[in-house]
């Protein structure tokens, strides 16, 4: 049922974002093992080196501000330096040597920090659990950018070499990235390697931008590129590709290198901005990491938690409303996300993918189509999205496709009974399956709670 009198994103905006996301789907041939394309290395004139040069693309960034018809598209963010793919232990040690060489040439310590990112195979198979980290991207550059390199460390084949572990534990080396703390936590859980001096771009941006991201409820790496660098960071389905394949294809190589390079460039640009007074703000640098970052948990436990996260009980609605009927006078400034959440909201890879597509203006059916999902949409789309929202993330209720008559009935029920409806109340009113009923109830409870927080 199409809700009436509801504010929606313009059809042209959603269609534009969806079309641009699809334009980035074209495949590419596999790269040669241990190399990409042989080009001239600007770091060592006269010599060839194993590198690749990225090309421009007009693919819209997933999760970035939706384009408006009156706005011109920002320049595309690019990386034109060497990329080293390390498939073996020997190649990884040699690659880490290149990073150290760039640092050694800098007298002022400007090359000490590196861009940091990770990739792993994303699986949406029910009960499969999260795959282990297979790729670690490291970007390094001199202050003038005349010397630079991005290393793609395929640790699932190269292993954890002494040089790589030394870099991870080096407290004089900052590892900067978006959700870098979450990545460090996963690397410790997957491979037992603790990372020192993690620099979280999300927290750093909070010190430089009063009021948060100007164009969306929360930051992403693409939005940081847009607002800090004035460039568009291309994003497409490559993020969800198989990072454990024998040979990475050109799209994967470009995608992985761009994220690490963007992390480094955004960090340098943010450090040049004036600090905003932020009393009690979350620190952006962690050295050493908090103990929680290196806690271990099994994939089986995570899988069970994911599967049970949306299992409905009659207490779910009450939990999501969090006694808002008794606490209408919330104190302090409210953020677009839940006022009960402070700092960053940590999401799993599946939750993050679905949530960013939601923020880009897609409804559940469009998200499923974007992910290539034709069945089990509830498990692949709705459950991860619901988990993200219950953690406190901001959301567009109009995009959740909750029928308006259900929303009105829910609000009336709460005000008349001073409690949320139970499953029996809901299913007796609407002809709907219990599986869909639980999703709708949680979504409506979350909306009601956020509305109360604003009052």
Automatic annotation (TrEMBL):
CDD domains: WRN_exo
SUPFAM superfamilies: Ribonuclease H-like
Pfam families according to UniProt: DNA_pol_A_exo1
Keywords assigned: Exonuclease, Hydrolase, Magnesium, Metal-binding, Nuclease, Nucleus
Entry's transmembrane regions: none
GO BP of this protein: nucleobase-containing compound metabolic process
3'-5' exonuclease domain sequence ranges: 83-275
Compositionally biased tracts (Basic and acidic residues): 17-47
Biased composition (Basic residues): 1-10
SMART domains assigned: 35EXOc
Principal localisation: nucleus
GO molecular function, one term: 3'-5' exonuclease activity
Localisation per UniProt entry: Nucleus
InterPro entries the UniProt entry points to: 3'-5'_exonuclease_dom (IPR002562), 3-5_Exonuclease_domain (IPR051132), RNaseH-like_sf (IPR012337), RNaseH_sf (IPR036397)
Chain residue ranges for the region called Disordered: 1-55, 286-318
UniProt feature, compositional bias: Acidic residues: 297-308
Name this protein carries in UniProt: 3'-5' exonuclease
Phylogenetic lineage: Eukaryota, Viridiplantae, Chlorophyta, Mamiellophyceae, Mamiellales
């Amino acid at each position: 049922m199409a809700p009436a009198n509801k504010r929606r994103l313009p059809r042209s905006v959603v269609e534009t974002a969806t079309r641009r996301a699809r334009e980035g789907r074209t495949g590419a041939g596999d790269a040669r093992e241990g190399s990409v394309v042989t080009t001239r290395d600007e770091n060592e004139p006269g010599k060839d080196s194993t590198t690749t040069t990225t090309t421009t693309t007009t693919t819209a960034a997933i999760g970035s501000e939706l384009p408006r018809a009156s706005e011109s598209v920002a320049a595309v963010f690019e990386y034109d330096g060497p990329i080293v793919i390390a498939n073996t232990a020997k190649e990884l040690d040699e690659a880490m040597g290149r990073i150290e060489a760039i640092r050694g040439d800098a007298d002022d310590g400007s090359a000490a920090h590196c861009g940091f990112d990770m990739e792993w195979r994303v699986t949406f198979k029910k009960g499969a659990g999260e795959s282990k980290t297979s790729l670690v991207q490291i970007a390094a550059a001199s202050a003038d950018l005349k010397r630079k390199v991005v290393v793609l460390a395929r640790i699932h084949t190269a292993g954890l070499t002494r040089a790589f572990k030394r870099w991870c534990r080096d407290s004089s080396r900052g590892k900067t990235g978006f959700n870098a703390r979450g990545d460090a936590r996963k690397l410790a859980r997957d491979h037992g390697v603790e990372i020192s001096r993690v620099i979280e771009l999300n927290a750093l941006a909070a010190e430089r931008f009063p009021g948060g991201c100007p164009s969306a409820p929360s930051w992403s790496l693409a939005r940081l590129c847009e607002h800090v660098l004035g460039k568009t960071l291309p994003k497409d389905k490559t993020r969800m590709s198989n990072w454990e394949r024998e040979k990475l294809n050109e799209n994967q190589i470009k995608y992985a290198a761009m994220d690490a390079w963007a992390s480094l460039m955004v960090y340098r640009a943010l450090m040049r901005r004036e600090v905003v007074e932020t009393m009690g703000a979350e620190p952006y640098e962690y050295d050493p990491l908090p103990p929680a970052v290196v806690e271990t948990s099994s994939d089986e436990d995570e899988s069970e938690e994911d599967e049970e996260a949306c299992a409905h009980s009659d207490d779910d609605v009450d939990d999501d409303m969090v006694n808002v009927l008794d606490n209408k006078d919330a104190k302090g400034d409210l953020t677009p996300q839940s006022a009960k959440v402070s700092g960053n909201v940590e999401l799993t890879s599946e939750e993050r993918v679905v949530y960013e597509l939601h923020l880009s203006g897609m409804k559940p059916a469009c998200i499923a189509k974007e992910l290539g999902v034709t069945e089990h949409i509830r498990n692949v789309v709705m459950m991860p999205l619901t988990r993200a929202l219950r953690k406190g993330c901001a959301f567009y209720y109009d995009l959740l496709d909750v029928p308006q008559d259900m929303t009105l009935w829910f609000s009336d029920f709460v005000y008349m009974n001073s409690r949320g409806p139970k499953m029996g109340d809901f299913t007796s009113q609407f002809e709907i399956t219990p599986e869909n009923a639980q999703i709708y109830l949680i979504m409506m409870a979350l909306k009601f709670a956020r509305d109360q927080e604003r009052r």
